[in-house]
Amino acid sequence: MKALTWQGKRNVSVETVPDPRLQMPNDAIIEVTSSAICGSDLHLYEVLGPYMDQGDILGHEPMGKVVEAGPDSGLSEGDRVVVPFTISCGSCWMCSRGLYSQCERTQITEYGSGAALFGFSKLYGSVPGGQAQYLRVPHADFGPIKVGEERPDHRYLFLSDILPTAWQGVKYAGVGEGDTLAVYGLGPVGQFAARIGVHLGARVFALDPVEERREMAKRHGAEVFDTSEESHEAIREATEGRGPDAVVDAVGMEGHQSPLGKLAHQAVGLLPDAAGQKVMEVGGLDRLSALHAAIGLVRRGGTISLSGVYGGQADPMPMLRLFDKQIQLRMGQCNVKRWIDELMPIVEDASDPLGIDDLVTHRLPLDEAPHGYEMFQKKTEGCIKVVLDPQAS
Fold first, then answer.
1. pLDDT tens-digit readout, 220-251
2. How confident is the model at residue 254, as a pLDDT?
3. Phi and psi dihedrals of 316, rounded to 5?
4. What backbone torsions phi and psi does residue 225 show, to the nearest 5 degrees?
5. Taking Cα atoms as reference points, which of 142, 164, 144, 155 lies closest to residue 82?
6. Distances from the Cα of 214 to the Cα of 166, 233, 314, 387, angstroms
7. In 17-140, where do the E strands start and end?
């Protein structure tokens, strides 16, 4: 089969690799019909190279049709499924509490990490990912989400990651009718977080330096701003000088306006893998501009919810300000299956209340995935979300 493989920093290529095979009775094999490029994939492309091996298959936002089903998978050939990016058993102590991203049966204890993830480095198990023509799905008796045939792929595809990630981020922020929410970063997760905030009745302020991203958020009811201090002042003024009740940071480790963090990322990328891993395990490597801005912007007694991925172990944090402002911090890898029952009716609603039909800016065959990565990282050609078709010729 064809699959997108990691070859080095900012270097991915489509290669012919062996087809996946069933390994356990509760495995399934799916033919991937759509697979998205996620902002988290860009961390592998740029920052987390020390934990990657040449030839690793990327991708963690897939869906498709079951072509082989293990006897204990609970699936049948022909089932149409979305595959969550986290690999969870559904029955361990953590899973029984809805903490599927902390599954005790798939935790990567060697690195002290939570549940295994598709296509996401040694830190999360080096499980072959879904930017490929076929995908082996472990724990298929729990993970895959069966969907109907009445909607196109893109209506369901984002249940694999970014839609529940955004939903969890807003839920963790604790906002609802009449509250105020700022969303920092308007990539795919930030777009959905802003729309979810509006859907739940909050007044939403959406911040991003890229005009096309602001315009998309504006179409869906958010008040949009760039990331300047003037924008922060305007939001404070709109909230009686207090700041918003909550902020969702949908940026993460590669935020703009963090030159020292950028230099640290570049330096790690030049080190041998073992040395680079050591620096990441003990160092403070994140570009924290968005998080620091969120801390400054949120009102006293408010909540900051982190949906963007951070990876530094010793990042400097303004603890005095956090304590003095009595800020609540919530964060974590998304527990995808916890939110599906709430999200499925919204996804299947003919009126499309979250504007899912207005997110994908680029659809490419798998062979053009390297261009998709470059375009997405550099934010060129109006790129906000890329969906790959692995079956296109």
1. 999 999 999 999 999 999 999 999 999 999 99
2. 62
3. -70, 130
4. -145, 155
5. 144
6. 17, 18, 32, 21
7. 28-37, 62-69, 80-82, 134-137
Q: Taking a C-beta distance cutoff of 8 angstroms, is the pair 329, 174 a contact?
A: no
Q: With left for phi above 0 and alpha for psi between -120 and 50, is residue 135 left, alpha or beta?
A: beta
Q: Which residues contact 209 (CB under 8 A, 6 or more apart)?
A: 226, 227, 256
List the one residue out of 35, 6, 45 whose CA is nearest residue 374: 45
pLDDT at residue 263 is higher than 50: no
Tens of pLDDT, residue by residue over 40-95, are 999 898 767 788 999 999 999 999 999 999 999 999 999 999 999 999 999 999 99
Tokens of 48: 């987390």
pLDDT score at 258: 46
- Look at residue 32 in the predicted model and tell me its pLDDT: 98
**What gap in Å lies between CA 192 and CA 184, rounded to an integer?**
12
Distance separating the N- and C-terminal Cα atoms of the chain = 12
Going from the C-alpha of 279 to that of each of 287, 307, 311, 313, the distances in angstroms are 15, 24, 11, 9
3-state secondary structure 237-293: HHCCCCCCCEEEECCCCECCCCHHHHHHHHHHHHCCHHHHHHHHHHCCCCECHHHHH
Per-residue confidence (pLDDT) for residue 43, from 0 to 100: 85
Opening angle at CA 320, ends 296 and 253, nearest 5: 55
Strand partners, 8: 11
Task: Please state, as a whole number, how many other Cβ atoms lie within 10 Å of the Cβ of residue 351.
Answer: 6
Burial class (CB in 10 A: 0-12, 13-18, 19+), 174: middle
The strands making up 303-306's β-sheet, listed across from edge to edge, are 223-225, 203-207, 180-184, 246-249, 303-306, 328-331
The pLDDT of residue 264 is 45
Length of the chain: 393
For the cut 50, the answer to whether the pLDDT of residue 279 exceeds it is: no
